[in-house]
C-alpha cells in the first residue's frame, strides 16, 4: 500500500434529499471546491448496493478517504462502517432538510446550508489521515482484583467463569472480608422471612478449587504502573517480599469501614461495653455459638435489646455522614431476629425515624420481623445512659412524648464509609512552570492520612478520584462502573453504600467491564463512550513547550510526563475526549481523525456572505454525546433551525480550542453557540471534567471579544442535555435573534 | 369484672401487646401495623376522638394499657370500613376497634358516660329481656338515661316522630306494657349465658 491519498465523495439522494436539494450542485461542490477525486450519487446509499459500491471503490480504486453526504453521523452507523479509511459525513438529512421548511421561499437558504455542509465535510476529510494503531497495544487477559471480601471474591469468580484468570490481592490473612464476621445475611430469596447463610464459606471454597484464581493473602499493592492491557503491579507481602505481575485490567473492591460513633456523646458508645455498633453485634452473636446472646459487660443473657437507627447518618452536623447507608434498617431487622431465635422471650425494639427497607426482600422482611414480635417504634433517641440497665431516652414521634426504655444491650446503626485511597484531586492540581515551585507546592500540600491502595504510578495521583464522601467518581447515569482511570473499575461499597447482594451484582458487572477493557486494550480500541475508536492523541514534540496543561487537565489521568516534562500519552488509558487537545496552548496535540485543523478547516470552508447580503453565519459547536443527538432528535420531530446555523460536532466541549473561536470571529461569523453537558457536582459530561474545563477556558473569550471590539453576546456557552430536544434548537434560533438585534459582524470580507 | 382486670394486669405485666394478642378479637394483627397513618387519615370521624386507630396501635405497643382501654376511640367507630379498605398492611382495623371496646367493657375499664357505650348496654339489656328489641322501650330508655327532666325534654323533642311512627303502625304504645317476646326467651338466655361462660373461661385460661 502506498501512502497516496485518494478522496471519494458519495451523495445520497434518498430520504427526500434528492427532492429537496440539487444533487448535481452538491456533486460539483464536492469535486471542484471540495477536491474529491470522484463523487457518486446513489438513491439509497445505505442499502447493500450503495454500501457495496463504496466498498468496491475502497478495494479496487484504493480510496483512502470517504465523504458521505447523507444522514446524520449518528444514523446508519453500521452500514457506513469502513474501518480502514478516513471517513466523514455531511449531515444533509437531520442537519438540513428536516430542519428547514419545504417551501420555495426557503429553497435558496436551504441549498446554501447543504452546500456548506458538503464543503465542510470535504475540507475536514482532507485534513484527516487514516487511523493507524499505536503499536502499544497488548492483550493481557488476567484481571487483578484488589480486596478479598464478598465483592472481590465475586469479581474473581465471575472473571474466571468467563475464562479470564484473576488474582485477588487481600490485605488480611484470609478471604471473606467483613462478611466473614456475619452470622447470616439479609435474605435474597423468597419468602424473605429468615436471615440466610452468607455464602462466604462456599465462595472461599470455590476460589480455592479454581485454577484460574490466584490469591495473595497478607498482601498489598506497592505500585501500579502502565496502562490497560499492560499494567505492571508490584505486590508486596507482609514479610517484605515483592512480586511483580502483569494485568490487563483492575477491579478495586476494597469495601467499606463502619463509622466510629465515639464522637457522638449522646449515644454513650464509649461509656459502656454494652453499647455497641451493628458491626460489633455480629461478632458478639458469633461468640455465642448459637446459644443465648450475652452482653459484653458481665455475660448476662440479653433480655431486652434496643436498636438505635440512623446514628451519625443523614446528618448536617460536622463530623457525621451526610448520607444514609440505606441498609441499616434491614440489618437491624436481621439482628433482632438473632435475639428472637437465640434468646427466647427477648424484647427487641427498633427505634427508627424513617424506616427504610429497600430491595426485593425489604417489605417482606419487615413484615417477617413484625410477625416475630420485633417492636418498631418511631422515635428519636436523645440519649443512652450507661448503667446496669441501659436507659434509652427518646421522643416517641407518633405519641408525641418524651419517654424512655430499659435495655441490656444497645446496638447503634452506624453508616458505611468507603475504604478508598486518597483523592488525587483533594488539593487542586496546579500547573507550575518550573520545578522549584513544584517542590514548594508539595511541602504546602496537607498531609494525606489515608494510605494509598493502588499506588498508581500516574501523573495525577495514586488512586481513583472521588466523587463525594470518598466514594469513587463515575458517570452515575450512563457509565456507573467506569471510574476516572481507564481499565480500573470500582465495585461494591466503594462506589456507594450497598448490601451483599448488590455488591455481588456490582462485582459481576465490574468483572464484565474489566474483561471488555482488557480486550479493547488488546485491539487498541477506546473504551466508552467512543468504544471502538482506534484513533488516539499524538503530539508534535518540537512544538511542545512542556507547559503540562495536557497532563494536568486530562480528566482521566491518562498522560504521564517524562523526565523533561514532555507528555507521555498512554493510548489505552485515553478515552479520546480531546480535552488535552483543547488545552494545548500551542496546538500540537491531534488525533488522526480529529484535530484543531479538521475543525478549523470546516470553519474556514463555510461560505460567509458579504455584509450587504444580510445572511449571517452562526457557528454551533455541539457535543457529540448530548447536544448533537438532541439536535438530531429535534430534526426528527420537525423542529425548525435557523438557516444561518452551521453545526460542527465536537467530541467534548473540553476539546474546543480557543483558536476556533478567535478564527471564526475574525473571519466574519456573527455568533457562536457552544453546547456541552452539565458540569459541577451533578455533572453529565461523558468525560467528567471536559465541560467544566471548557467553561473555564471560555472565560477568556471575553478578552478576545473586547480586543476585537465585538459584543459579548456573540459567544454563548450552554449546558445542554440529550433530552433538551426543544431547547437545543431554540438556543440556536435565539442567537439568530440576538444577531438580528445587534447587527452583523463587521469582520466579513 | 375488676377482678378480671387485676388478673390480666398480673398475667401480662410485661407486655400489653401480648395481652391484646391473646384476648382481643383480631388482636394478633396489632403488631403488623407499620404506622403509616393511612387509617388515621381515612377515618371520617377520627379527628373527633381521643385516639386514631394508628395511635391506639402504637399505644398498645408502648404498653399504655390504661389509656388504651379507657379511650373513647373504639366506641366511636361507625364501622364504615374505610380504614380496612385502605390499610396497606391489611389490618382488620374495624374489627380490632370493636374487639378493644369489648375487652375494655369486659374489664370494666370503658369510659362510664360514653354515649355509644351506654347505648350498647341499654340495647343489650333490652334485647335480653324478651329475646327481641322493644323499640319503644329502647327509645325511652335512651331518652331517660340522663335523668327524668332531660328524658321529658328528649321525648317532647321527638314527639312528632313518635306519633308518625304510631300512625304508620311502625310502633305501638302497647309495647310499653310487656311487649312481644320470642317463643323461648329463657332458652335464649341460657344459650347466651353458656356462651359467656365459655368466653370467660377462655380468657381466664389464657395464662
Ligand atoms: S484525549 Fe482525553 S483522555 Fe485522552 S489523553 Fe487527551 S485528555 Fe486524556
Ligand atoms: S499542552 Fe501542549 S505544549 Fe503543553 S505539555 Fe501538553 S503537548 Fe506540550
Ligand atoms: S393504615 Fe394500617 S398499617 Fe397504616 S397505621 Fe393504620 S393500621 Fe397501621
Ligand atoms: S371503620 Fe371505624 S375506625 Fe375505621 S375508618 Fe370507619 S369509623 Fe374510622
Automatic annotation (TrEMBL), chain A:
Required co-factors: FAD
Residues of the signal peptide: none
Keyword Lipid biosynthesis: no
Pfam families to which the protein is assigned, alphabetical: Fer4_9, FlpD, NAD_binding_8
Domain named 4Fe-4S ferredoxin-type: residues: 535-564, 565-594
GO MF term set: iron-sulfur cluster binding; metal ion binding; oxidoreductase activity
Family: Belongs to the HdrA family.
Protein name, per record: Hydrogenase iron-sulfur subunit
Protein's organism: Sedimenticola selenatireducens
The organism's taxonomic lineage, starting at the top: Bacteria, Pseudomonadati, Pseudomonadota, Gammaproteobacteria, Chromatiales
Amino acid at each position: 500500500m502506498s501512502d497516496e491519498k485518494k478522496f471519494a465523495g458519495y451523495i445520497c439522494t434518498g430520504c427526500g434529499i434528492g427532492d429537496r436539494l440539487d444533487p448535481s450542485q452538491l456533486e460539483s461542490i464536492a469535486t471542484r471546491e471540495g477536491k474529491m477525486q470522484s463523487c457518486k450519487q446513489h438513491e439509497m446509499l445505505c442499502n447493500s448496493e450503495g454500501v457495496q459500491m463504496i466498498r468496491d471503490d475502497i478495494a479496487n480504486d484504493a480510496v483512502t478517504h470517504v465523504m458521505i453526504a447523507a444522514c446524520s453521523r449518528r444514523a446508519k452507523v453500521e452500514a457506513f462502517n469502513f474501518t480502514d479509511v478516513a471517513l466523514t459525513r455531511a449531515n444533509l438529512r437531520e442537519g438540513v432538510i428536516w430542519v428547514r421548511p419545504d417551501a420555495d421561499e426557503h429553497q435558496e437558504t436551504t441549498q446554501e446550508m447543504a452546500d456548506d455542509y458538503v464543503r465542510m465535510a470535504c475540507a475536514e476529510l482532507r485534513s484527516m489521515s487514516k487511523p493507524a494503531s499505536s503499536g502499544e497495544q497488548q492483550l493481557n487477559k488476567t484481571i487483578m482484583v484488589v480486596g478479598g471480601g464478598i465483592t472481590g471474591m465475586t469479581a474473581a469468580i465471575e472473571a474466571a467463569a468467563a475464562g479470564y484468570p484473576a488474582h485477588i490481592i487481600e490485605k488480611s490473612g484470609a478471604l471473606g472480608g467483613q462478611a466473614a464476621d456475619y452470622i447470616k445475611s439479609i435474605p435474597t430469596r423468597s419468602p424473605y422471612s429468615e436471615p440466610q447463610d452468607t455464602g462466604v464459606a462456599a465462595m472461599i471454597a470455590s476460589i480455592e478449587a479454581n485454577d484460574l484464581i490466584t490469591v495473595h493473602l497478607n498482601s498489598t499493592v506497592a505500585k501500579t504502573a502502565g496502562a490497560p492491557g499492560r499494567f505492571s503491579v508490584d505486590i508486596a507481602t507482609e514479610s517484605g517480599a515483592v512480586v511483580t505481575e502483569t494485568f490487563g485490567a483492575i477491579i478495586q473492591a476494597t469495601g467499606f469501614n463502619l463509622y466510629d460513633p465515639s464522637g457522638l456523646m449522646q449515644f454513650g458508645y464509649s461509656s459502656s461495653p454494652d453499647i455497641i455498633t451493628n458491626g460489633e453485634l455480629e461478632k458478639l452473636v458469633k461468640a455465642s455459638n448459637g446459644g443465648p446472646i450475652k452482653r459484653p459487660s458481665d455475660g448476662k443473657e440479653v433480655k431486652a435489646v434496643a436498636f438505635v437507627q440512623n446514628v451519625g447518618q443523614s446528618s448536617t452536623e460536622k463530623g457525621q455522614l451526610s448520607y444514609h447507608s440505606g441498609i441499616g434498617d434491614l440489618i437491624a431487622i436481621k439482628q433482632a431476629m438473632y435475639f428472637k431465635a437465640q434468646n427466647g422471650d427477648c424484647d427487641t425494639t427498633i427505634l427508627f425515624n424513617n424506616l427504610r427497607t429497600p430491595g426485593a426482600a425489604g417489605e417482606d422482611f419487615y413484615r417477617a420481623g413484625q410477625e416475630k414480635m420485633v417492636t418498631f417504634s418511631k422515635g428519636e433517641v436523645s440519649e443512652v445512659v450507661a448503667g446496669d440497665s441501659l436507659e434509652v431516652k427518646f421522643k416517641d414521634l407518633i405519641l408525641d412524648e418524651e419517654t424512655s426504655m430499659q435495655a441490656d444491650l444497645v446496638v447503634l446503626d452506624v453508616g458505611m464509609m468507603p475504604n478508598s485511597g486518597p483523592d488525587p484531586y483533594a488539593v487542586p492540581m496546579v500547573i507550575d512552570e518550573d520545578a522549584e515551585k513544584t517542590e514548594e507546592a508539595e511541602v504546602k500540600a496537607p498531609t494525606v492520612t489515608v494510605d494509598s491502595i493502588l499506588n498508581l504510578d500516574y501523573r495525577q495521583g495514586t488512586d481513583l478520584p472521588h466523587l463525594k464522601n470518598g466514594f469513587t467518581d463515575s458517570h452515575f447515569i450512563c457509565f456507573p462502573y467506569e471510574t476516572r482511570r481507564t481499565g480500573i473499575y470500582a465495585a461494591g461499597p466503594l462506589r456507594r453504600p450497598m448490601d451483599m447482594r448488590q455488591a455481588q451484582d456490582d462485582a459481576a458487572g465490574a468483572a464484565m467491564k474489566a474483561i471488555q477493557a482488557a480486550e479493547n486494550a488488546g485491539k487498541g480500541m477506546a473504551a466508552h463512550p467512543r468504544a471502538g475508536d482506534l484513533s488516539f492523541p499524538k503530539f508534535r514534540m518540537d512544538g511542545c513547550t512542556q507547559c503540562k496543561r495536557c497532563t494536568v487537565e486530562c480528566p482521566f489521568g491518562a498522560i504521564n510526563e517524562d523526565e523533561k516534562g514532555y507528555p507521555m500519552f498512554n493510548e489505552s488509558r485515553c478515552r479520546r475526549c480531546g480535552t488535552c487537545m483543547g488545552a494545548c496552548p500551542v496546538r500540537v496535540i491531534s488525533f488522526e481523525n480529529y484535530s484543531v485543523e479538521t475543525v478549523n478547516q470546516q470553519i474556514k470552508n463555510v461560505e460567509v456572505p458579504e455584509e450587504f447580503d444580510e445572511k449571517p453565519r452562526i457557528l454551533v459547536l455541539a457535543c457529540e454525546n448530548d447536544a448533537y443527538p438532541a439536535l438530531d432528535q429535534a430534526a426528527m420531530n420537525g423542529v425548525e433551525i435557523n438557516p444561518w446555523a452551521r453545526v460542527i460536532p465536537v467530541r467534548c466541549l473540553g476539546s474546543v480550542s480557543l483558536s476556533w473561536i478567535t478564527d471564526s470571529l475574525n473571519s466574519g461569523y456573527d455568533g457562536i453557540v457552544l453546547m456541552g453537558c452539565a458540569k459541577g457536582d451533578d455533572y453529565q459530561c461523558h468525560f467528567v471534567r471536559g465541560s467544566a474545563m471548557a467553561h473555564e477556558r471560555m472565560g477568556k473569550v471575553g478578552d478576545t471579544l473586547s480586543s476585537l471590539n465585538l459584543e459579548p453576546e456573540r459567544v454563548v456557552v450552554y449546558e445542554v442535555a440529550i433530552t433538551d430536544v426543544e431547547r437545543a434548537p431554540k438556543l440556536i434560533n435565539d442567537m439568530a435573534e440576538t444577531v438580528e438585534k445587534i447587527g452583523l459582524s463587521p469582520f466579513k470580507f | 369484672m375488676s377482678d378480671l382486670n387485676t388478673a390480666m394486669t398480673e398475667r401480662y405485666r410485661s407486655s400489653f401487646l401480648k395481652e391484646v394478642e391473646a384476648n382481643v378479637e383480631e388482636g394478633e394483627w396489632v403488631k403488623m401495623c407499620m404506622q403509616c397513618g393511612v387509617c388515621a387519615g381515612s377515618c371520617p370521624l377520627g379527628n373527633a376522638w381521643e385516639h386514631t386507630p394508628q395511635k391506639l396501635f402504637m399505644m398498645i405497643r408502648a404498653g399504655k394499657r390504661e389509656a388504651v382501654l379507657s379511650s373513647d376511640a373504639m366506641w366511636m367507630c361507625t364501622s364504615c370500613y374505610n380504614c380496612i379498605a385502605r390499610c396497606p398492611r391489611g389490618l382488620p382495623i374495624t374489627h380490632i376497634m370493636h374487639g378493644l371496646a369489648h375487652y375494655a367493657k369486659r374489664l370494666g375499664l370503658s369510659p362510664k358516660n360514653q354515649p355509644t357505650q351506654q347505648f350498647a348496654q341499654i340495647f343489650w339489656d333490652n334485647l335480653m329481656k324478651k329475646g327481641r328489641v322493644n323499640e319503644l322501650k329502647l327509645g325511652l330508655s335512651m331518652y331517660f338515661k340522663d335523668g327524668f327532666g332531660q328524658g321529658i325534654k328528649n321525648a317532647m323533642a321527638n314527639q312528632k316522630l313518635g306519633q308518625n311512627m304510631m300512625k304508620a303502625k311502625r310502633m305501638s304504645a302497647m309495647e310499653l306494657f310487656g311487649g312481644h317476646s320470642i317463643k323461648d326467651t329463657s332458652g335464649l338466655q341460657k344459650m347466651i349465658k353458656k356462651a359467656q361462660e365459655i368466653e370467660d373461661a377462655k380468657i381466664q385460661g389464657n395464662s
